[in-house]
């Protein structure tokens, strides 16, 4: 079995984590190594569920915080084992998000008596469909393990605090027509032509900009797919425009869907996919204290992340990790080694001040 050495610095530990492959669904060897390393630390209570590992301090502090990270990666692209080149560490998962997991493990090993109780959460299957998500499973099966006043998800943010996250939904806007032979097109009604009006609505749409807790969220409403057509000699009777709405976290999923339906009133609008946003919660004392300790202004998170799952549990959460979000899932994925040390230092200061 692979072993992790938590006395290594964050960069060397990231390299060790990258060198134990853990593509989604195949995290067992890495989860085993993490569990074993944490069980050797007498100040932590360790739980295991599937390929998720949870370790907690039990000091009876008035406040508890969660530091969470997923241990799976997207499929390897000729980029394992890791390799160091100057100030950069290359390899699958260096940015998303084994450097963040290394910071969690370093803090777990080196801060035995933090000023707030800490729950370290390492979970599986974040990079695949939501139904398999390990954090979602823990929330269903062991919600008490995730109870906290505040959570930090160490997803790649290039060492900046990113608050909350936008919601996302997809709808199919369907235009109907009447089928006919294209040689006698006046007998039909062209559904693809009708889609032009749907696209015109999208083209003219002014997305909102919303400020919540001092962070500006920019919404987006976009066609992401158009499907229609029967054959080269048929007037089509059906066209589907798939629309993706990224909405600020002041709107619920229901409100967001109602907004889209109203925009396309008169059309058949079918909801195909939806996930809620998460408000940044920076007005909560525990979150505000974290932002102060990191010492940089917080930014809004535009993508969807598992902070939304914490929000649903009533736990305000932010993203803060050493990886670079723009490099996640790329073949030349890498992380700045200085960002790993910076995150570890700032978080240690926060947990020991
Ligand atoms: Zn990630």
Question: What labels would you give this structure?
Answer:
eight-stranded mixed beta sheet, four-stranded antiparallel beta sheet, alpha+beta, binds zinc ion, 9 helices, 353 residues, 29% helix
General description of the model:
By secondary structure, the chain is of the alpha+beta class. The chain has helices spanning 10-18, 28-39, 94-110, 134-141, 191-204, 253-263, 285-294, 307-312, 337-352; strands at 45-49, 52-56, 64-70, 83-85, 88-90, 117-123, 150-153, 162-163, 167-176, 180-181, 209-212, 215-218, 220-228, 234-235, 238-247, 268-275, 299-300, 317-319, 334-336. The chain is built from 9 helices and 19 strands. Strands 1-2-6-3-7-18-8-17 form an 8-stranded mixed sheet, with helices on both faces. Strands 13-15-9-16 form a 4-stranded antiparallel sheet, with helices on one face. A 3-stranded antiparallel sheet has the order 4-5-19. A hairpin with a 2-residue loop joins strand 1 and strand 2. Helix 1 (10-18) packs across helix 3 (94-110), helix 3 (94-110) packs parallel to helix 9 (337-352) and helix 7 (285-294) packs across helix 9. Bound molecules: zinc ion. Zinc ion (ZN) binds at residues 70, 96-97, 126, 155. Zinc ion binds at residues 70, 96-97, 126, 155.
């Amino acid at each position: 079995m692979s072993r992790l050495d938590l006395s290594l610095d964050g960069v060397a530990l990231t390299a060790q984590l990258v060198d134990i492959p853990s593509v989604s669904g195949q995290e067992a060897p890495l989860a085993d190594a993490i569990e074993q390393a944490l069980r050797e630390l007498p100040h932590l209570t360790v739980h295991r569920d599937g390929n998720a590992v949870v370790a907690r301090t039990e000091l009876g502090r008035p406040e508890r915080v969660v530091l969470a990270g997923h241990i799976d990666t997207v499929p390897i692209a000729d980029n394992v084992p890791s390799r160091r080149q100057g100030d950069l560490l290359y390899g699958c998962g260096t940015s998303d998000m084994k450097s963040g997991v290394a910071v969690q493990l370093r803090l777990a090993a080196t801060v035995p008596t933090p000023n707030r109780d800490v729950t370290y959460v390492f979970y599986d299957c974040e990079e695949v469909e939501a139904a398999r998500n390990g954090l979602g499973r823990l929330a269903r099966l062991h919600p008490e393990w995730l109870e906290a006043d505040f959570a930090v998800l160490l997803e790649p943010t290039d060492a900046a605090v990113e608050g909350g996250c936008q919601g996302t939904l997809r709808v199919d806007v369907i235009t109907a027509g009447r089928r006919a032979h294209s040689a006698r097109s006046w007998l039909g009604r062209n559904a693809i032509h009708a889609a032009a009006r749907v696209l015109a609505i999208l083209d003219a749409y002014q997305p909102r900009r919303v400020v919540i807790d001092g962070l500006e969220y920019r919404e987006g409403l976009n066609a992401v797919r158009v499907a229609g057509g029967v054959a080269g000699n048929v007037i089509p009777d059906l066209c589907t425009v798939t629309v993706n709405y990224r909405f600020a976290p002041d709107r619920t999923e229901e409100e967001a869907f109602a907004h889209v339906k109203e925009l396309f009133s008169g059309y058949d609008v079918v909801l195909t996919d939806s996930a809620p946003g998460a408000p940044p919660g920076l007005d909560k004392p525990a979150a505000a204290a974290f932002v102060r300790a990191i010492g940089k202004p917080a930014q809004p998170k535009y993508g969807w992340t598992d902070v939304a799952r914490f929000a649903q549990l009533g736990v305000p959460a932010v993203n803060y990790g050493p990886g670079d979000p723009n490099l996640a899932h790329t073949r030349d994925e890498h992380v700045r080694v200085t960002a790993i040390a910076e995150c570890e230092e700032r978080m240690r200061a926060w947990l020991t001040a």
